């Protein structure tokens, strides 16, 4: 079930009502049933995959906890193989075959074979396998005891607000919350609903609106398009994916909050980051911290020889890229971010040795430029994330300035003709399918989002409104609701991260 | 829970008031018209139903040729479902007529786009009786949602505004697209064969839009029933209904035979009349594009066909 669907609009109030009316003992079962219904809306048979993962890791938890010595590691490995095996089969098997056949055909000069399996990727598989794996790993690290109640453990994997696109929770954080008795608290419930409304604004008004313009460029052959179309579409995609994923996370956090649960925060103003490393501390935090704790630190973290550290960084980011999808574009995207981090630290080290730059490093102007440069670097990397294949992404990345010699004079000419900023001319290359007015609505939305996040603090930063007088609050809420209704795109576009 | 219920109720009321206030602002400017308010307690010699192909038969143009009082209920891109609702509104407003001319385009029976999902709802003002009619006529939740929402969107306001401006003025004269096209083609020495190829390509594009679901049989069966309801509505109000398959320069439309077969069946069953004019008026002078009549076309059609049907 999509959050932005009519079905969810019916489903969620019913679940909330039943949840608070039912006795505490039955609430886990109720949430479990609700989660099954939520997931079954996509493809019912894939519920079996979830059950398989749940059963494997539930028992693996006990085996790991009880075993001693090398057996502990053996059980952990068996559990991880089961999880990763499922993930590999559904997500990477065809990609793997395709590459093997390409290599073989190149070696033996035969036409490439393509005996692909007809597999549909279960929604959010990477999310729930990673969440499931964190349970067994935490038990192995003796930071978590195995959960005795099978239903509670099942709910840990299946809790519907974060089932298909995270945040990726840790057992220590989520499981104890299932044992708490959540009464109906006015403030918490209304705060949760406000978060959900804000999430819908991000998704429907900004992300889905921007998608129309981004798709116009990225879903068509790039060779026929000017470079400025790539630049504009890429910059817009930076905000499309941000608002899409932030929107999902905010709706998930809000829905959980209504029910009495706190989910971890997934974003912290990532586009205000001053370096690629800071970006990754603020973007998809639950995945970044997963990668840090379960891959980067076991590889040695930064306590390794200086020549090993870049390799570790690249490994982590390539795995992060692979996690996002079975395509070379994602691998390049991950590797590029790894390269950014290594290069940035190298440059920073050199700069810090120069007194003049070291003094300027902390000035506001310098910080501002750091933010801009980081944003541009991240946006450039999104080209590889969004493009349909490596060839197209490479073409786009290397033709960003194509046809600028006709585009810029046209803008200058129109500016002098209209004595104003010619928005229609500026955005002309990407406004073929939809007019510029709809794009302006989305851009205003982005400005509102950045102002709101800039002014507030903490994960619920936009709840800053709660402290304002009632007439300001209610006006803002009514405008928020109506801006969603009027400017929202209701074509039921799936959240981008559902595919991972 | 009590405080929450009170606040949420208050919030809902505030939103409804806000919505009505916005609608009041828009409605006050005369942006919206309701099919149900087109006429009240009036008697017409005949009324017309149909799509944009029928919309061009403006009252004052036709009434000048035929000394008869007419009301044109046709709307751009309206399939049988919206036309059924408009007819229902017409009769519920205590209007009467003896003759109904329904210029029926075959594509109107094959797609949700021209029926439940029709854009004409943007022009309808918010009336709960109309909402009820929409629901009882099978409007989807998307349609209902858009019916309420579209009034506030900038696109709708632009559309409605242009619709209001053009709805009662004479047939828009073509900007001579075809002539210009031909003249230009002469200038650049395009042959007639090339022009024919351009027309074919345009027709193909147009058909892809008109038949966006192809010849969907499920839709056809469903909308055939709506045609029956229109016939029954006419009969219940003592009006004779005549269906006309209109001519265009695009040749026989997909689904043409099936529609003729259906009308033949209804002729036997419900004593209706129908006329297939597909092959008539095959001259560019009657059209301002490949399918819509210009003033010449409207005049010719009225004099040669409507007058005979109505006499």
CATH superfamily of chain B: SGNH hydrolase
Radius of gyration of chain A: 24 Å
Q: Topology as H/E string of chain A?
A: HHHHHHHHHHHHHHHHHHHH
% residues in beta strands of chain A: under 5%
Secondary-structure blueprint:
The complex is a heterodimer of chains A (500) and B (311).
Chain A lengths: L5 H16 L2 H17 L6 H20 L3 H39 L16 H16 L9 H9 L12 H8 L7 H33 L8 H33 L16 H7 L2 H12 L12 H16 L3 H25 L2 H6 L3 H23 L3 H9 L5 H15 L4 H4 L9 H20 L14 H18 L13
Chain B lengths: L1 H27 L14 E7 L2 H4 L3 H7 L4 E3 L7 H13 L3 E8 L24 H9 L4 H9 L4 H14 L9 H11 L4 H19 L6 H20 L3 E6 L10 H15 L2 E4 L18 H16 L1
Parallel strand pairs in B: 1-2, 1-3, 3-4, 4-5
Helix pairs in contact in B: 4-10
Overview of the structural elements:
The complex is a heterodimer of chains A (500) and B (311). Chain A is mostly helical. Chain A has 2 domains: 6-179, no CATH class; 189-499, no CATH class. Helices cover 69% and strands 0% of the residues of chain A. Chain A has 20 helices and no strands. In chain A, helix 3 packs across helix 6 (150-158) and helix 8 crosses helix 19. The two termini of chain A are 16 Å apart. With 311 residues, chain B is α/β, with parallel strands linked by helices. Chain B has a single domain (31-310), classed as SGNH hydrolase (Rossmann fold). Helix content of chain B is 53%, strand content 9%. Chain B is built from 12 helices and 5 strands. A 5-stranded parallel sheet of chain B has the order 2-1-3-4-5. In chain B, helix 4 (80-92) runs parallel beside helix 10 (217-236). Chain B is globular, with a radius of gyration of 21 Å. Chains A and B meet through helix 8 and helix 20 of A and helix 1 and helix 6 of B.
